Records
---
Amino acid sequence: MKKIIVIVIVAGFFVATILTLRNNKALAEKAIIVEDITAKVIPVSTAIVERRDIEQNLSLIGTILPKSDINIVSEAAGRLVALNANVGDYKSAGSVIAEVDSELRKATLLNAQAMYEKAQADADRIELLYKENAATLVQLEQVKYTLQAAQAQLIIAKRQVKDTKIIAPINGVISMKMVDKGATIGMNAVIANIIDISSLKVKVNVSERDAFALKNGDKVNISTDVYPGKTFTGTVAYISSKADEAHTYPVEITLANSSVSPLKAGMFARITFSTIYKHQTLTIPRNALLGSIKDPKVFIAKGNKAELRKLIIGAENGYDIEILGGLQAGDIIIVDGQNNLKDGTKISVVNH
């Protein structure tokens, strides 16, 4: 039994010795590799960090809306005896879209007109008698009150007859028709929808920073998939003073509709705010970065060695990146060959 225990102890010691030797060998090989990498001179290209104007284009997707989009509403209840509108028809402001049966309202108007004329005649007669001291002041005041009431009833009757004609409130195209001739409608019933697309507007929401960079009158470029390669020019007409629940600010852009390349309401459009940012700042080329924008790093040349720096970046325009922290003007950054470097690697600058 003692022999077995001794054998097990010896075997364990032997295995531990072998594992220790292998581990030491691996560490030694790794040290040699690190030493080789550190000792090796890597050729690189560099650039100088400097201040320059950086521009960034803000591009957003919005929906094209008509200049005006209005429901045509009936102010009279009754049966439609005429309907002069079909979807797609162009109507001028003030043109009659539909008519409600007005027979009873016209009769009421005739009665109101007659009552008014009688009240006017009575007032004229009593006023004349009053001047001749043949009528009292009370009688004169009474006929004047009667005349005013008759006049009010006449105005109401005229308006009721007028309301039987449903007119277009703006110049535009009928986009929807909700009823047909012969239908009975109620007061405030929607008859049709009319839109004005002689000019258009686009609404988009921008961030807080962008909202303060924009101003009314700024020109923007607008493009659509319908007309590839064609750019329309719009104007910033309104920037909201209040953010929405997402802390973005609504912006309204207006543009004239083209007769050559007409746009329609409801189309998607890409709005590009040109040079929304333009200021002088530290910049570096985009290709100098290691890794992604989320974890930006760069190598700088310190003498004959590479030094890794973490960065804080701002705006980018695809070619240059704004540097908010991590570098100073005059620093020499490595723009080519940095993928072969480690912090402290010896370098040889082949060009600036």
---
Amino acid sequence: MNNSIEELEKLTARGDLFINENGKVRCYACAHRCLLAEGKHGVCKVRFNFSGELRVPFGYVVGCYCDPIEKKPFYHFLPGTSALTFGMAGCNFHCPFCQNWITSQALKDKNSEVIFEKVTPEQLIRFAKKTGCKSIVSSYNEPLITAEWAKTIFQLATTEGLKCAIVSNGYGTPEVISYLKPYLNAVKIDLKTFDDKKYRKLGGVLNHVTSTISTVFKENIWLEIVTLIIPGFNDDQTELREMARFIASLSKKIPWHLTAFHPDYLMLDNRRTRPSDLIRAVHIAMDEGLEFVYTGNLPGQTQDFENTQCPRCKTTLIKRLGFHAIKMNLSEGGACQVCNEKIPGVWK
């Protein structure tokens, strides 16, 4: 392992997602679309202009674990299986409530640190297969700003029969989604708030996130959405209803995960999310017609809202406790075994 930032900056490759503009480079891996003069870094702090070309992170991980797929969280994507999850350093947001801040804010926050390990895509694939993982997921930091590294891994993973996914804040561009699409089986996107002023304080613009969500859905890539319910920040009934209506406008079958906040990083004085907060938010979402609404981070405390139910006959199709699917009543093709209702998702 290594923790030298200077050494980390050497682990780069020529990027694909940029164009030259009068001696500067315009990066379009994310919606910031940074225009970088020689030697300058983007908002993410990991993509930079070196001699007129964009250099991007390559050949290392700051974290690599075999996790339950439910931890991402994905509930309609290979449930009950394990995913090899890897991440790098950097993020294009600066959320004060970030729960992965050790890696995502590593190059922005002097209190954070970068501990990384050099790896090859081949080593990651071998580890995934050795541990019985069925998929490979780019997570922990923002995967769109390290898209070239993810694509290289995903290309090899696909040839080895593994599914590929990203866990993103959704601050993307149509170009980066198109770039990853041939190797991308699923995307989880955070919808942090439905208030543009709040999004700008986090470092982005609401419209870019909703546009990315719409693009992923229209490209027929499996999509699940997560909102960390933070008391006093995004739990207002009107805001929750607006988020639910937006998701329902795309499809009432998109899974929406409502997860519990705990004080972390720079938001240490906020109270924790209670089970009743999540249950209230679930009912708002269901009132707007969403068929698959889930709670997270409070295992066994939110009635049966961790489980997947058939929208037609109400049979419990997948029973969960925390990150574990402990009972499944789905056919191999993803249909209810009682009424044969087809449940949307990636099941095999």
